[in-house]
Design goal:
There is one protein chain. It contains 15 helices and 15 strands. By secondary structure, the protein is α/β, with parallel strands linked by helices. The protein has 2 domains: about 210 residues, Rossmann fold (3-Layer(aba) Sandwich); about 150 residues, Rossmann fold (3-Layer(aba) Sandwich). The strands form 4 sheets. It has a 6-stranded parallel β-sheet. It has a 4-stranded parallel β-sheet with strand order 7-6-8-9, sandwiched between helices. Strands 10-14-15 form a 3-stranded antiparallel β-sheet. It holds the Pfam family Peripla_BP_6. Keywords: Amino-acid transport, Signal, Transport. This is ABC transporter substrate-binding protein.
């Protein structure tokens, strides 16, 4: 396959230096801006992940470093096929120098896979590393066949972290240890429910009984089968990884049909204040994984702002409550600046990929470095881990919700804001 990278290299070798439509390398040498492609779900059922993108991008471009960059944003519309299509547009038509992508395997994987095929460096985030790495392998079921990537790099936490956070929260309450699992038929759901890398083997080892009713389709409108199974099993713990619309549907039906768990820890959907607010008072004490909050003890390498500063600035500018993706989108641009400062040639995909792999940067979401020993050997080149804690949504007396950190066993440097409480 003739990739854009191969064409650029061939052109440079013959003294032409022409890419797919211009003098890419000489233009940047003459002061043209570095082009970043950015793919995220601006619309569709995953749009909550991209809620802060416009703010993050505007804030970055207003910095001194941001003046050296052009950002071309594409909406994946929460659709994996479109994510791959717009990634190809960014590479072939817009001739970007670096791809940035975020928000669930349905968005990150098709973009990263496209970049890998085209020889374009890519940094992704906001998806657990297992469905990101394993999901892009030719044979996900055969670990012996898994290979590292040359151009795709990812930073986030893993299933081992969210499982530890959730089970640590549950251990703080007196329950019958019977768990109901809600795992959809998507990248996250298949990974979280996997009998090898997901929740089932760990729960069994820790003495929890899991009722898993199988993979349901996203945007389902009837969870009666799952609710009945959980009632029959007398489950006191609910877990899973749901998109926001499905969590609203499920929780309202669960309340109507009389299911009364002691704790419900749901990934993905409960990250966002608007999802909880849509439940009215019924969202009180629902729990979730927590990647980033204003109380996280980290600063931006771009601006020196603390997590609290960035969260406050977002609310002041938009009138909306802070949301977890703010920190991770901010860190994408921190990494882009740091990488391009160190790359020997920003127009050479190999040079940029080399600079990504050599990154050691303190960011708004914590230290980021690839080739870290706290991962399985097969993932060390391409994955950098970030810390994870657990939190509960608490109804405020004046309306709205606060997200309170109640579990930090994996990251004790992130302060607790309270103790776990049972659902009413």
């Amino acid at each position: 396959m003739i990739t854009r990278r191969k064409l650029l290299k061939a052109g440079a070798a013959t003294g032409l230096a022409y890419g797919l439509g211009g003098l890419a390398a000489p233009a940047i040498a003459q002061g043209a801006k570095i082009k970043l492609g950015y793919v995220s779900p601006q619309t569709g059922p995953l749009a909550s992940f991209g809620e802060s993108d416009a703010y993050n991008i505007a804030s970055f471009l207003a910095t001194e470093a941001g003046k050296n960059f052009e950002i071309i944003v594409k909406d994946s519309q929460s659709n994996p096929n479109r994510a791959a299509d717009v990634a190809k547009e960014l590479i072939l038509s817009d001739e970007i120098n670096l791809m940035l992508v975020a928000s669930t395997p349905e968005n990150t994987n098709p973009v990263a896979t496209t970049c890998e095929a085209e020889g374009i460096p890519c940094i992704s985030t906001k998806a657990p590393w297992q469905p990101w790495f394993i999901g892009q392998q030719g044979n996900p079921g055969d670990p012996e066949s898994w290979k590292p990537f040359d151009f795709a790099y990812h930073y986030f936490w893993g299933l081992e972290d969210v499982i530890a956070v959730f089970t640590n929260m549950w251990a703080q309450l007196d329950t019958n240890k019977k768990v109901g699992g809600l795992f959809p038929n998507d990248g996250d759901g298949n990974a979280w429910g996997d009998k090898v890398v997901g929740f089932p083997p760990v729960l069994e080892k820790l003495g929890f009984g899991l009722t898993d009713t199988g993979r349901y389709q996203n945007l389902t409108d009837d969870f009666s089968a799952q609710i009945n199974a959980f009632k029959q099993a007398e489950t006191e713990i609910l877990t899973g990884v749901m998109i926001p619309p499905d969590l609203t549907t499920f929780w309202n039906q669960a309340k109507q049909q009389g299911i009364k768990p002691k704790i419900a820890s749901i990934g993905k959907a409960l990250l966002f204040p608007q999802t909880v607010e849509a439940l009215g008072d019924a969202g009180h004490n629902l729990s979730t994984e927590v990647w980033w909050t204003p109380s996280h003890p980290f600063k931006s390498s771009l601006t020196g702002e603390t997590a609290a500063d960035v969260a406050t600035a977002f609310t002041t500018a938009t009138g909306r409550p802070w949301t977890q993706p703010i920190g991770f989108a901010h860190a994408l641009f921190e990494l882009a600046v740091d990488v391009m400062k160190r790359a020997e040639d920003v127009t050479d995909g190999d040079a940029v990929a080399k600079a990504i792999g050599e990154t050691k940067l303190d960011t708004l979401v914590g230290p980021i470095a690839w080739n870290n020993a706290n991962l399985p050997p097969f993932a060390q080149k391409n994955v950098a881990k970030t810390p994870l804690v657990g939190g509960q949504w608490r109804l405020k007396s004046g309306g709205g919700y606060d997200l309170v950190v109640v579990e930090n066993g994996q990251a004790p440097n992130i302060p607790l804001g309270g103790k776990i409480e049972a659902l009413g």
